[in-house]
Amino acid sequence: MPTFTFAGAHTALVTPFRNGCLDEAALTALIENQIRAGVSGLVPAGTTGESPTLSHEEHRRVIEVTIQSAAKRSLVIAGTGSNATSEAVELTKEAEKLGADAALLVAPYYNKPSPEGLYRHFRNVAEAVSIPIILYNIPSRCGIEIPISITTRLANDCPNIVAIKEAGGSVDRVNQLRAALSKKFEILSGDDSLTLPFMAAGAVGVISVASNIIPAQVQEMVQCFLHGNQRHAQSIHQRYYPLFRDLFLEPNPVPIKAALAISGLCQEDVRLPLCEMSESNRKTLVDTLSNCMSS
User: Fold this and answer.
1) Is 165 a catalytic residue?
2) CA distance between the termini of the chain
3) Which of 72, 97, 136, 257 is catalytic?
4) Given 56, 97, 163, 231, which residue has the most CB atoms within 10 angstroms?
5) Is residue 40 in some structural domain?
6) What average pLDDT does the segment 41-58 reach?
7) Structural domain includes residue 262
8) What is the CATH number of the domain that holds 94?
9) Number of DSSP helices (H) and strands (E) in the chain, helices first
10) Which structural domain, as residue segments, surrounds residue 16?
């Protein structure tokens, strides 16, 4: 099997809150749980970590606690994206200074730059640091897609832009990316329910929401596929697909925080404008979680 830097399951960590404040003890406990389960990497301060509602100091602290707690036992891929290039540069430089192994940069949201603007945005960040950069394509949240032509250009022009987290929901786009990019450029699924289809098209792993609650199972699924045991990987996918689905009954990370709270791993607190799940959706999630864990 070829060796890839980011092959495996990487957990898009929630940011635990208690009474509106960052709960560092719960975050550290979550990280220890992830490390014991053998995940390949941790991704603090991303979408699942509620980065839009973190202050700059909280953003920095979440990344710092993750790096210190992981203590080189897994990769730490810091979420450092912004729709302001200068802010993305500063966040990424700070993550590098703190010791992050890589940075995950979402496409600039709301201001909808042109393809050339996208290229210059990511190139400016990449040129400011030496750590690897993973692009993050999620058009449903950003309002724009990172074109394949721009991804290829960035991969060719910026030696430290080495991977993309693909959350556009299209296996065909993964096929197109794989055909357009060199074999050493890595693709990661950004959607648990599409991890295996994406890997069949050339992805090497996932940045996972579900692995907050089932880290060992998601890692096992990915590793089985990478090592040629597709049948067992498929059986894991089928067992946990209802959970993959129902973790998006409401906007992420509301359901995954509810699942973690049900399991006693952190408080359910989210920050406005996010709010708690509806009772009907919560009941569905509780039933799904119970069924997946007992089957």
Assistant:
1) yes
2) 32
3) 136
4) 163
5) yes
6) 97
7) no
8) 3.20.20.70
9) 12, 10
10) 8-215
